[in-house]
Amino acid sequence: MSLPRGASWDSLTPELVELVASCLPPNEVACTLRLLNKSLAKQLQRWTSVTLSRPVPPHAFARHWGDERVTHALPRKQRQRLLCLTACSGAISNLDVAVSAVGFPLTKEVFHAAAASGHVHVCEWLHDRRCPLHGYMAIQEAAKLGHAAVVRWLLSLHRPDPGLRSVMASASLVSAAEGGHRDLCEELLVAVWARRHLLSLAVYKAAAAGHVGLTDWLLAQAATSHDGGSINDAVLLSCAAYGYELPAFQRLYHARMGRGGAGGSNMAVAAAADEDFGWLCGPDVAFAAIASPKPDWRAKFEWLEAAAGCRLRGSAATVEYDMLPSVGGTAEPLAAAPTPEDALERIAFLRGLGLASFDRLAHRLFRAAVTSASAPVLRYLRTAGLFNLQDTGLTAVAAERGHVAVLVELLAAGYDIGPGDVRIAARDGHLHVLRWLAGLEEGAEAGAAETAGSEAGTAARGALREAMEGEDLIAHAAESGSLELVSWLRDKGCRLDERAFTAAAEVGHVAMLEWMAAGGCPMGDNGEPYLAAGRNGDFAVLRCLRRLGCPWDPHGHTFSLAVWDPSQKPCSLAVLRWLVDQGCPVDWKAAEIRAPVHAADGVMDWIRSQMPAAAASNQAAAAAAHFQEATPTAASSKAARGLAAAAEAAAAHGQAAEAATSDRAPNGVLGVNGPAAANSEAANWD
């Protein structure tokens, strides 16, 4: 980016600067070019956001995310998202900075993000650092996206175990077929890695996804393989009716019937010829055509009805289709059609067929519309009376997703919103839902709530009041990691308690813990916050708790539960050693009893190595105390101090021996000074 001698960026015309910027990666412009001088910063205001899933200039990434005060201001979930997005970018130098800054160990989600982005070098880097692989899920996602190099590398890790390798290759084959990647499918089959009897499932997935050429190729492979699996033509036609456009579906239909391409020019002749095959095109195929994301869904249905002997009217009107192979239920794709208008058109079309069982299908459509947040579909079904008030859990689904418009429709239909729904909304951080319930939100949704009926609105506000009168709402809010929500609830009268403090430690929110401590929130006296953070290996939170003076159980119960708790996962060896280093009381005998159940390697050996030094330290301290109490003179005090020093030396010797055999926990963590945003891909660092 250097200029000729004597030239400067100010000497370039605005048009030329724009041209240069357009040739550079957007992150390079945002983090480097526009920061060269004020003139460039003013001119290049279109490039102010940094997309973390793409390579970020290392100098800018290290300056921003290498500052622990910025990183530790994020809840653990967002710190993990920072790692995942950085892994997606493929920039190992940036990932190294992020791993050092977040304050907790690598997780399988980070590896999955790298594999799904196709970065073999990042996968290798993570594997070398003992990152959990998440291999089965990772290889499926990589295969679906066509990342053949990642698939090969993951399979190479399992050469010593041919059985597991075959299982993973088979899963890759099905996913690659769904993604439409013929080259990868061919490689997996030719290398005899995948189990060929799963070809039928691969065929169904490819057909449902609309990959016509790949489906034909897979069908040919299955036909020439003695173990290629049995292709069920009825299932195949259902999947193709969903994923294919009409011409391709017609060709497949006639090919499977053995007549090769009659097309749809003479439907009467085709219908007569296909009379014996009408059972292949039952209601499932017709429903699949109507639920198809293709724009010619109506033409497919009409051709099926006229030419293929498929019937949904008349005597077939009592048939109800439930599941579409390889796609899901009919209701789900219908409710989640490309546009609300499209969904309503298809539902009205189905209703017009006169199906005796349409009411039951409509009930499933109502639930699917809640899940997909399709308020127009809900409104259509509600006004037609096509819903079932006995279908429980719908308000909880809407509250969990934070869909106020859906809650409005449910209230208008007569569904009740209870305090449990309020707690669910709080747990997922949906402050706007609680504000709506309180009548504080002035948006369109709040106005619509009033039109839903004053009785329903009163019931909703009553649910919020009842939830706020309980003792666990603010703890649920803390679980969301939303400091704004917790602060709002406290201002509304909810009292902070030790459960909320522990929840903040569990979600890894340093800023929330500091805010709670400043507000006088009780921390408890049993050390549960340490356990909540320790189980996640979150050293940033552990050090914050220590800095805030959070107590632990004085009798060693905190440490014993860290070794093993029957209801929770144990803490890692690194966390156990950190607790000891920080002075956590330990009942070594109780810890030794619990250690055999601990899954981590080395915990039992480490505990036993600590016991002699701990015993010597305790004996020396007891002797010093006894001697000082018996002869409280200057000389005896000096001797007691000598015994105490000996005890400290014995303990230090044990710790030094232990430090020589394994790594220490991460370095210290700075305090938090202000919020940062990593909850979305684009983070504006200005």
Structure overview:
The chain has 686 residues and is mainly α. The chain is built from 41 helices and 4 strands. The protein has a two-stranded antiparallel sheet. It has a two-stranded antiparallel sheet with strand order 2-3. Strand 2 (323-324) and strand 3 form a beta hairpin. The longest helix has 28 residues, at 603-630. The chain starts with 13 loop residues before the first helix and ends with a strand.
From the structure above, extract its key features.
686 residues; mainly alpha; Serine Threonine Protein Phosphatase 5, Tetratricopeptide repeat; two-stranded antiparallel sheet; two-stranded antiparallel ribbon; 41 helices; globular
Number of helices: 41
Largest sheet, spatial ordering of strands: 1-4
Strand content: under 5%
The termini sit apart by: 22 Å
Reported for the largest beta sheet, the result is: 2 strands, antiparallel
Strand and helix layout:
Blueprint: H1 14-22, H2 26-31, H3 38-43, E1 50-51, H4 58-65, H5 68-71, H6 76-89, H7 92-102, H8 108-116, H9 120-128, H10 135-144, H11 148-156, H12 162-179, H13 182-190, H14 199-208, H15 212-223, H16 233-243, H17 246-257, H18 267-273, H19 283-291, H20 297-307, E2 323-324, E3 328-329, H21 331-335, H22 340-352, H23 358-371, H24 375-383, H25 394-401, H26 404-413, H27 419-427, H28 431-437, H29 444-451, H30 454-469, H31 473-479, H32 483-491, H33 498-506, H34 510-518, H35 528-534, H36 539-548, H37 557-563, H38 573-581, H39 588-594, H40 603-630, H41 634-659, E4 682-683
Antiparallel strand pairs: 1-4, 2-3
Helix pairs in contact: 4-7, 6-7, 6-8, 8-9, 8-10, 10-11, 10-12, 12-13, 12-14, 14-15, 14-16, 16-17, 16-19, 19-20, 23-24, 24-26, 25-26, 25-27, 26-29, 27-30, 27-31, 31-32, 31-33, 33-35, 34-36, 35-36, 35-37, 37-39, 39-40, 40-41
Region (Disordered): 655-686
GO molecular function, one term: phospholipase activity
InterPro entries: Ankyrin_rpt-contain_sf
